[in-house]
Write a structure and sequence with these properties.
71 residues; mainly beta; two-stranded antiparallel ribbon
Length: 71
Amino acid sequence: IFSWEENDNAEGYEIEVARDSKFKDVLLTKRIRLNTTSFDKTLVPGTYFWRVRCVYKSFKSDWSKYRAFEL
C-alpha cells in the first residue's frame, strides 16, 4: 500500500512505480482521487522506486521526491 500526505487543493493524484530512480523504466502508472492506493500487478524481487504528484483540472504539480522499496 502506498500513502502520502494529502493536498487540500488536489482533485486527485498520479503515482508511478519504476525500476530506476530516474523513472526511465516505469512499470505502473495510476491516476486516483485518494492519497492512498495499491497495485494488483505482481513484481519480481528487487528494488523499486515510486513518486506521486497532485492533479488539479489540467494542472499537474511537480513529482514528489522518489521513495524506494524492496521486495
